[in-house]
Every structure is written in structure tokens, then in C-alpha cells.
Amino acid sequence: MELSENLLNAFICGDCFEEMPKLPDECVDLVLTDPPYGIDYQSNRRVARPKLPKFENDVDLSWVDGWVEEVYRVLKPDRHFYCFTRFDMYPVFYRSINRFFKVKNCLIWVKNNHGSGDLNGAYAPQCEMIIYAGKGKRLLNGSRESDVLHCDNVPSAFRRHATQKPVELLRQLIEKSTEPGELVLDPFAGVGSTGLACIDSDRFHGDHHERNYLLFELNREFVEKGRAGGLGRQEILLESARIARQEHPKKRPALRTNRVRARRDETLPIPF
User: Fold this and answer.
1) How many other C-beta atoms are found inside a 10 Å radius of the C-beta of residue 265?
2) Is the overall model pTM greater than 0.70, yes or no?
3) Residues 36 and 135 in one domain
């Protein structure tokens, strides 16, 4: 079942555990996300810049099974699922994902520099795991790639989220598993890097190669940062059109962008 156009390219401030059940069965073409790792994340590195905010719901992992089942429900047949995780959380996510999907690979993302981690006794982490799973038999696009992915991390000076992923890495995964016009869901969107990667797939290849996105994020501060960066533009367009109708009722502006239809008034985000 296709998703309503009202939700295409939308960045919604909401809890994915409440928002995903509202979606119809088999309505998205790819799920790509970086869920909470089950730790109270805070770097031990001592730096002058302020600490990034901690995650909400980042300790209890009892939600994983129900969430993965919901991912399976909304994903179309013959589609893919990418889930970022840490080495110590891998068994938890692998077990849950493999109950519903066929886990095909554990991809390793190698960064250009290492993180802080435990300064007193552990090796400095320089890689992350990505569980790649399938619902059905869809093949990857293009040539066969290695399961080791090299991509520079987001420089700390430009990072707006504690574990923000580079758009280039996300774009590569999106293009391997989707076709132009298909819909990518990120239930834990952070500041919206997955949405930017969908937009970048259009810019990199030219016109008519864009992927649509649907982003959920519980933290309003992150959503506000993502919208400030250009995500969810149809919501801004709709608000402008609503004001114009009130001021000039005889001049009804079109509610379409060149790509997607604007969202209806009743689905406007809660003002900050």
C-alpha cells in the first residue's frame, strides 16, 4: 500500500513508537536508521565546546523486538533494512532483526579518525557496524562492493548530533538499495542526515533521481536543526500558503512544489 503524499519528504517531531503504527502496511522502500545504542552516551574527551545533548530512551533495550517487527510491517516486500549499531549492542539487534529479516552482512564503516571511548583501558574506536538485512530477494544496485566502507566522519566542528552520520555514507547505502522516486524511512532521524542523503542522490546524478524521505525524531531540538538545514520544506510552503489565503482569500496559491505536494494544515508540526 502506498503512503499518502502528505507524508512524502516530511520531518516529523514525534516518537516513532507512536508514529510508525499509523503507517499502512508495506508502504516504504528502505529503512535506514541509527537507533539508540542502549548506552548513556557521553564522550569522555575534554574539550572546550559544550557537550552535545544525551539521547532519550537510550538505556532500556526491551523495545527492540517490537520495533523491528514494526519495521518489517511497514517495509515493502523485496526491500532492504540498514541498522547502525555498536560492537557491544550487535548481538541484541542481530537477534531481533534476524527473527523477521534475513541478515545478509555486517558492514563495517571505517572512519578517518578514532573516537575517545574509554580513555583508561580500551582501544580507541574507529569503526561502526551496520546490520544489512533483506525482506525478500531484492539485489543491490551496481557492482558488488566490499563489506568494509571507508568514509570520513563528520568533523566535530560541524557536528549537530553526538553520533551524526556522514551524508556521503548514507547516500551510498541509499543508492545501493533504492531506485529514484522510492521512499526511505528513518525512524530515529536525529538532525535528518538521511533526508539530506536522499536530496544529495538527486544533486549527484542530476534531475529525476531524487529519493523521497520520511523522518521521525523525538527530540525537538534535533528536528529544529534539521528543518533549519532545509528539510521538510513542504511544511514551510504550506504555512506560507495558509497565511496568504487568510490575507488574500480570492487569491489561492498553488500548494505544490516542483517535487512533492504540501502537507495539509492539520498535519503541521507543533510550533517551537
Assistant:
1) 11
2) yes
3) yes
> Which residue carries 508502504 as its cell?
27
> In the prediction, which pLDDT does 154 show?
74
CA dihedral (253, 211, 186, 230) positive or negative: negative
One domain, residues 133 and 267: no
pLDDT at 226: 87
- pLDDT of res. 228: 83
CATH number at residue 147: 3.40.50.150
Pair 128, 219 in one domain: yes
Low-confidence ranges of the chain (pLDDT < 70): 1, 37-61, 114-120, 155-163, 202-209, 233-272
From the list 229, 252, 257, the residue with the least C-alpha distance to 11 is: 229
Are 223 and 247 members of one domain? no
Distances (CA, A) of 201 to 140, 163, 176: 16, 22, 11
CB 44 within 8 A of CB 118: yes
Residue count (the chain): 272
Residue 109: phi, psi to the nearest 5?
A: -95, 115
Domain extent, residue 237, equals 232-272
DSSP-derived 3-state class of residue 20: helix
